[in-house]
Amino acid sequence: MAEAEGDHRDRRVIKNTPKVWKADIWAHFGFYEVDGKLDKTYAVCKTCHTKIKHVGNTTNFTNHVDRWHPELASTTTTQKVDTSQPRIDESLVSMLPHNSERAKRITRSVACFIAKDLRPYSVVENAGFRHMLKTIEPRYKLPTRATFTDSALPTLYKETKAKVMESMCKASRVAITSDAWTSVATESYVTITAHYVSEDWQIVSHVLQTRAVYESHTGAHMAGLLLNVVEEWQLTDKSVVLVTDNAANMISAAEIGKFPHVKCFAHTLNLAAQRALKLPTVSRLLGRVRRISAYFHRSTKAKHLFEENQRVVLKLTSPLKLITDVATSRADLANVEEVVKTLKPVKDATVFMSEESSPTVSLIAPVYAQLLQSMSDTIGDQPLIRDVKNAIKTDLLKRYNSGAEKKILHTSSALDPRFKGLPFLTEEERLDVSAGVTSEAASLEYERRRRTEADEAPGGTGSSGTMEELLSVDDNVSDSAGPSAPKRWASSLLVSLLGPAFNDISEPAVQSKTADASAEEEMDLYCRSPAVPLSEDPLDWWHRQKGTFPLLSRLAKRYLCIPGTSVSAERVFSTAGDVITAKRSALKPDHVDQLVFLHKNLEIPKC
């Protein structure tokens, strides 16, 4: 490096280097101008005016800055990175093949993310999402939106559907619920859910399908749809029970499809409550309440004052949200309080019946009877309360009058150890229900024994065939096995002829009980067993007692799987509302079905 002496530094103006010179170090060096042109023989430091011979590279200039001006060196890089060009290390990174195991796992995880979190298919085109995946795995190339729409999600749907069908095939009975709803795109859908008790005595629920329905919802059309569901999901041998609302078309569909039918108890309670709320006196009272409530919802100032008064007057640290407010007089206030008190049992029953994790069909009969009793007139009732009670009671008395439906409800309650005493029935009705339970348990046992005998019979296992087949087989054996073959042939014929009569002759035969006798014995022991508290889960009880009551436990599993309401199908509406939004109203019905199904049924590891 050749540096000029610093004593006689030239004070001429230092001109900037040409713009095509991209190195960062040129920000601190320039050239003198001679005869209107840059003298590129020496580069001049802009800080100390030292001249350094320019030999074609920037090494000498960098060394000068590092030695004499380190404060400049900390902010200077020797080479400016061109972000438009990939780095060498990035260029050398090999991309994951789309069919590699890791790429498949990532693609599947993205599909699970779309389904479980109800994300739109277009999320794979969002810049932020693509950046996140690129950061996590730079070698992974995210497939297109069409790949997830046409391949990844349908594959996930098929896999999950196969698992659901495999799980349901182990159930002794499956109950289905059905309800219809309309999307924001004004398309009609019908959702079907399935419910059964697993081998470890847990209630299992699945959304089977959410299908667009373009025909009118007549009983015949709905029956056809339900029968198709039974066939598609291989439920023909599961004694399917149908749970729907009280709509006339669904009652007709159950009759046409020959489904045992239970009407949704939550819908029944709602109809009864609505009838009471439509009474003229109650309707006028509610009108005044709604006007005051609407005022506080419209005015932000009034709402703020309302919350402040709650803090000051009522000493509430967290103000209550205004649902309904008091009326304009003390009489109205008293009437509102009495109406709320009267309707409280109906509300409590509706909330409790909406549970999905525990049996609810066994609750219908006792709760129904209790509500009828609580809605009876009592001394001191005001005319308004008497009218409310009579309206609810009158509506409830119209429900659950068919013999088949009563049989399901009463049998379910009898098989629930909490209500086995059936105190809401007369003595004659209790005896009839007990006899029916015993008879049905015995029938199931007869059927089980028949299948067992058929499976163990020689023809059932394929251990023997016709005489011609035996002779043909033994002739072949004789040709190849030599003199010992006739002995084996005679032995096999002897077993075929006399085996059933002379097997296990060393042990005395044990006379087994008939199925009727076993069922009666179990029913008697079950009725005499200690009472079970209302807080106990009946399925847990049966799980522990299945060894003591093998016949009744099998029957209990067939009845306690039936939901008392169709709330599970109605809850899909909120899920579907997240799927079919205003921005995604053009979703095809098949995609709606897949997304709702996967959101409810897809199992992913918990993190």
Description:
The chain has 607 residues and is an alpha/beta fold. Among the domains are: 6-73, no CATH class; 88-156, no CATH class; 267-401, no CATH class; 402-456 and 514-565, no CATH class. The protein is 54% helix and 9% strand. It has helices at residues 59-68, 70-73, 88-91, 101-116, 127-136, 145-168, 219-232, 248-257, 265-277, 280-298, 300-313, 330-353, 361-374, 383-397, 403-414, 427-456, 458-461, 467-481, 485-502, 515-528, 538-545, 550-559, 567-579, 589-601, and strands at residues 29-34, 37-45, 51-53, 175-182, 188-197, 203-212, 241-244, 261-263. The longest helix is centred in the last third of the chain and has 30 residues, at 427-456.
Taken from the alpha-carbon principal axes, the silhouette is elongated
Q: Segments where pLDDT lies below 50 for 5+ residues? A: 1-7, 461-487
Strand content: 5-15%
Secondary structure category: alpha/beta
Mean pLDDT: 82
Helical amount: 40-55%
What are the salient characteristics of this protein?
five-stranded mixed sheet; alpha/beta; 607 residues; disordered N terminus; three-stranded antiparallel sheet
Please provide a brief summary of the model.
The protein is 54% helix and 9% strand. By secondary structure, the protein is an alpha/beta fold.
Task: Itemize the secondary structure elements and their pairings.
Layout: E1 29-34, E2 37-45, E3 51-53, H1 59-68, H2 70-73, H3 88-91, H4 101-116, H5 127-136, H6 145-168, E4 175-182, E5 188-197, E6 203-212, H7 219-232, E7 241-244, H8 248-257, E8 261-263, H9 265-277, H10 280-298, H11 300-313, H12 330-353, H13 361-374, H14 383-397, H15 403-414, H16 427-456, H17 458-461, H18 467-481, H19 485-502, H20 515-528, H21 538-545, H22 550-559, H23 567-579, H24 589-601
Parallel strand pairs: 4-7, 7-8
Antiparallel strand pairs: 1-2, 2-3, 4-5, 5-6
